[in-house]
C-alpha cells in the first residue's frame, strides 16, 4: 500500500532554501566558483555604495570607455526594475534612481554551515551596532581579477576612508576566524567594482590606462564626491541583512 502524499505545508517548508542550478545564459556566462555542498552556505559581508547622479554618470562613462576596448564588458549597475522580473536577465541601469548599489567587501568569499548562520549574523550586528557613520572618497580606477581567474573587474579605488575600512575588516577578521574561515587579504586595496568581463586579466592595466584621457574631465569630480557609509550589510545564500551605523 502506498503512503499518502505529504501536505503542501510540509513540502513547501524549505522552498526558500532551494538553490537553482547554474544557468550561465541568465548570468552573462558566469558559473558557480565552488560546487554546492549541502549544508554549506556562501556568506559575504560588505558595504553598500549608492551612487549619486554625478558618480553614476562618471561610472557610466568609464564603463562605455572600457566597452569600446573590451566589448564583452558588463556593467554592475543593474536596473532595479529589471531585477524584479525574476525570469529575465538583468538590464543595465540608465539612471541613478534605478541603479543597484555597488559593494565594498569586508570579507573574502566564505562558507558557513547552516547551524552557524544565525549566530554569525548576530555577531556581525553586535560588532558594528555602536560604530559611527563615516565618509569615503574614491581616488581613481583600478583593475582586479578574482581568486580563480575566471573574471576581471574595473573598480573605483577608495582613498579617504581607508583607515575606517581597515578597522571594520579587523573586526570581521576576528569573527570569521572563529568559524575557521580565512581573514581578509593582506594589505587590502579597498574598492567598489563597477564592471566585469569573463577571464582573468581581460580588464587589465592597459584598459585602465585608456581612461587616463578622462582624468582631467572626470578625475576631479570623482575624487571630490563624498559617500556616507550608513550600514554594514551581509548576504547569506539569497538572504540579506544589515546593521545601521550611528549618526554622528
Automatic annotation (TrEMBL):
S-adenosyl-L-methionine in keyword set: no
Database matches in Pfam families: HVSL (PF09749)
Superkingdom of the organism of origin: Eukaryota
Source organism (scientific name): Linnemannia gamsii
Gene3D superfamilies registered for this protein in UniProt: Cyclic phosphodiesterase
Regions of compositional bias (Basic and acidic residues) in chain numbering: 13-28
Gene Ontology CC: nucleus
TM spans (from-to): none
Name this protein carries in UniProt: U6 snRNA phosphodiesterase 1
Keywords carried by this UniProt record: Exonuclease, Hydrolase, Lyase, Nuclease, Nucleus
Renumbered residue ranges of the record's region Disordered: 1-28
GO MF term (any one): lyase activity
GO biological process: U6 snRNA 3'-end processing
PANTHER family: U6 SNRNA PHOSPHODIESTERASE 1 (PTHR13522:SF3)
Xref: InterPro entries: Usb1 (IPR027521)
Amino acid at each position: 500500500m502506498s503512503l499518502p502524499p505529504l501536505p503542501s505545508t510540509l513540502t513547501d517548508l524549505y522552498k526558500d532554501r532551494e538553490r537553482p542550478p547554474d544557468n550561465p545564459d541568465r548570468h552573462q556566462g558566469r558559473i558557480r566558483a565552488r560546487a554546492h555542498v549541502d549544508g554549506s552556505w556562501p556568506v559575504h559581508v560588505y558595504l553598500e555604495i549608492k551612487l549619486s547622479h554625478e558618480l553614476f554618470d562618471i561610472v557610466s562613462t568609464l564603463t562605455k570607455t572600457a566597452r569600446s576596448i573590451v566589448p564583452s564588458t558588463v556593467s554592475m549597475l543593474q536596473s532595479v526594475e529589471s531585477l524584479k522580473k525574476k525570469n529575465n536577465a538583468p538590464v543595465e541601469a540608465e539612471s541613478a534612481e534605478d541603479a543597484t548599489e555597488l559593494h565594498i567587501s569586508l570579507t573574502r568569499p566564505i562558507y558557513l554551515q547552516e547551524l552557524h548562520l544565525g549566530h554569525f549574523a548576530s555577531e556581525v550586528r553586535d560588532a558594528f551596532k555602536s560604530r559611527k557613520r563615516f565618509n569615503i572618497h574614491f581616488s581613481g580606477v583600478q583593475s582586479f581579477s578574482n581568486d580563480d581567474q575566471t573574471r576581471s573587474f574595473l573598480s573605483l579605488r577608495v582613498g579617504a576612508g581607508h583607515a575606517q575600512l581597515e578597522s571594520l575588516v579587523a573586526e570581521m577578521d576576528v569573527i570569521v576566524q572563529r568559524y575557521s574561515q580565512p581573514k581578509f587579504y593582506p594589505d587590502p586595496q579597498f574598492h567598489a567594482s563597477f564592471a566585469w568581463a569573463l577571464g582573468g586579466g581581460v580588464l587589465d592595466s592597459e584598459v585602465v590606462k585608456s581612461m587616463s584621457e578622462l582624468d582631467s574631465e572626470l578625475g576631479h569630480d570623482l575624487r571630490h564626491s563624498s559617500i556616507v557609509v550608513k550600514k554594514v550589510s551581509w548576504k547569506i545564500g539569497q538572504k540579506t541583512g544589515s546593521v545601521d551605523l550611528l549618526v554622528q
